[in-house]
Amino acid sequence: MVKPPKTWDLLESLAESGHISFIDLSLAKMLLGYDENSASLESAAALICHLSLSARSGHLCVEVDEDLVLPDPLSTWNENRFSEQGLLQEEGAQALLNQVPAMIAKGASQIPTRLLTKVREDVNDIHAVQTPLCFMQNRFYFQRYWFYETVLLLHYKQFISKTPRITFDKPKMNERVKLLEHSKKLLPEQAKAILNACNYTLTIICGGPGTGKTHTAGVLICTIWDALDDVQQGKFEIALAAPTGKAAANLQKSLLRATEGIGKLANLQSKTLHALLGIKGSNNSVETKFLPHDLVIVDESSMVDVRLMAALFAAMKPGARLILLGDGHQLPSVEAGSLFADFVKCQSGGESSRVTSLHKCLRAELKGILDVATAINLGNDEEVIELFEQGVAGIERLSIQANPRTDAAIAREICSYAFGCYQMQDLEKLQPKELLNHFNSFRLLSALRKGTLGVEEINRSINQKVKAALLAKEASRGCDGTRYIAPIMLLKNDYRLELFNGEVGVLVRPLFREGLGDFDFSCGDYAIFMGKDGEIKKVPALLLPSFEFAYCLSVHKSQGSEFDHLLLLLPSGSECFGRELLYTAVTRARRKLTLWTEDSILKATVQRNNHRLSGIPKRLF
Questions:
Q1: Which class in CATH covers the domain with range 9-141?
Q2: 162-362 has which fold?
Q3: How far apart are CA 206 and CA 327, in angstroms?
Q4: Which of 143, 215, 356, 419 has a CA between 20 and 30 Å from the CA of residue 322?
Q5: β pairing state of 355-358 and 202-207
């Protein structure tokens, strides 16, 4: 078959140089049709490519005005280059790229009517759009994301318009909360959050690490429980949930301390949101049965994407209470949307605000780390660098001596540093709980998965050093096999074994010897994890779901975890993820933060704010 001649020369060239994916271009060709007569549709194709690329970057829509396109194509297309070795020289590609914003603006009026439905801002009919694309005010959506956003807003508005089904005597509840505040069990801002939860169906509690979000939720549960009579307590249902299995397990551990010994509350079980809502596999449905629960608490809400958030609000029965906990400055969900940040923005301010922001850190050892986090949130790159230069307690820069300073030489030095932190003289003599604590005392994070300084290569290099050291020890002792110990992270859930994606444990191989592969397990090999009740869970290695070594974690995978000492790598390319990634990484450190990066990369990362676009703020008000 003869291929049609190129009629979208500019877009073809930018796909070849890696500024857009061929997936984006193929989608535009499929929707618009592509032949020798389609040259006039290249501007419309540019808009579709931008919408596709933006959706894969987490935006629900793109905004197009005569002189402004958001997200900015010059930055989005440049930073999403999919090929390091483009067929164009960089200068030539940039010259072509500079034409894209005007093309997109022109393309807004050239999308064929068979592909586009124009919808008014006040339309709430979730079936109003049956075409691939949708236009609302100045925003273009794919039908899928307009549908999810509209379903979410419809159920959100219905839910917050109701008053709680179970009400409390306000003066008595105020008195209860004041007593807790006077007895130093609550800070004033935490007390406000609890009163909000008593008065409204929706309460949002946001704050950074150490501000007591889950502590507040625990006191909230106990306060509401104490205000119920015996009959109400017998019928009152509580659900705890989080986006991932690891976050759900962490939530349950935290709340168990607050509810310990309080009858029914002592047996609360946390679930993933998918499990709570009955969503399985790739099921894209958001309409579901009402949950029977009167109080639903969701932790790590910043990680919830638009489809899951829509399903959650659709499932909330009228008059129930929903508490969303999270940190709006953290990385948003892997999938599209930054709903928690949108809700915080829309519901903040005024006497009837549903949002309580917790600002006071209750852990003194975090001060230096939190000063850095605050400067990052403000986009103050000079202050971030200055804090590291001042020698503030708990934060430091890692000095690399490698010469020449190639990525490979830097990686070798970093791996040697990390190897020294992970290994100790009598590691093999530690008990299971001591092993878990040892590996949680230090962790290496990288902003990237690929490349010499990415997660995969760093893990491979450290694992090689560990095995080489063990085999050398085996040879010196003249023994047949040695005890191999390594941190691992699970990549899949196994509900039968109560193991969850993202959970970190330790792999133990009592008789490791030369020639055995990383996954050539025998019956004596096992892994240990910390159970929800604080007890050690031992699982035969042969039964483990998919996992990877966890000497180094990606920042995305580290969400919901904390480590005493953290070494963060920000290689070139990290700046594309912006300050949200840097803030998330920095706040994983409990006591000490060590940073390796170049000043130029650190400045660019702090300066970049990767706010995701949606129509939610405009459609709510």
A1: mainly alpha
A2: Rossmann fold (3.40.50)
A3: 5
A4: 143
A5: parallel
